[in-house]
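Subgroup meeting minutes
Present: P.N., E.W., G.H.
Scribe: E.W.

1. P.N. recapped why we're keeping a running log of single-chain structure predictions: easier to compare across weeks, and new members can see raw inputs and outputs side by side.
2. G.H. added today's entry (308 aa).
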Amino acid sequence: MKAKQPQVVPGSGRLGKAGSAGARAVCGCAPRGKGAGIVARCRQCGCTDTQACAGGCWWVEPDLCSSCALVVTNSRGIQASRRRWTADEDETLRINFPMWPAFLIGHLVGHSASSVYQRAARLGIEKHPDHWRNPMAHLWNSTGHPNAIASRIKPGTVPANKGLRRPGYAPGRMAETMFKKGRPAREAHNYLPIGTEKIDVKRNNLVRKVTDDPSVFPAMRWRPVAVLVWEAANGPLPKGHVVRFRDGMKTLVSAEITLDRLELVTLAENMRRNTLHNYPKEITRAIQLRGALNRQINRLNREDRPHE
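Output recorded in log:
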């Protein structure tokens, strides 16, 4: 007998094939003629209910089986097989796509998950807002996809590269371009000497390189010029304090960063000066509403993205 395919039960919420005229064949029963004793036969290969194609097949048209519905395409010289979507499969997609994972629908109709998504987009079919309530909604998460689970490295698995360490292996220009152990920082092609100044775009501050010590994290090798100026006159910065420019006196020109432009404040005082509550209530409320609006927009954008 031909491979059986499940049928949809209208209103039941169960995954299945559509109930159109062509869909009556998907349960394994070939479309029957009007008269008794008429045997349905594929117009291409001649298979019937009792003599299906090798590997199984099902009816996609009254006189065409799924195996013969395959068409060959040539993409970039690579021969690949794809099967055309039938009206019955489109109806199956319309019924199931809003609430079921694409890979399950693809398994049902004989298409890949990506093909299901592409067909749904072409037909204008979207996920239902409550599709996540489906008991199988966890399968949308890539970590819960059967293929993801099957491809995970299992406990006790021997690594593919175990025992393949090859000291000195350096084909091509690998050895030439490798970082050498103990190599001085100044040998790097983009090396900047100690004392170099640049603008920290993220913090809008002028910083100066103070060390080449490889044990110091690269970002920590640069310090704000304002802090260096203050420490030169007053010693190390006290814990829990920051150096900041006085109001209206900030500059990014090294020669203009002088002690009279700077002040030492506690972290708490620095926070109070920078809080949005220093603005009038109307502006404060507008800033808060803007943040709430951005969060809602981002949430809707995430929900609109297709998930597997």
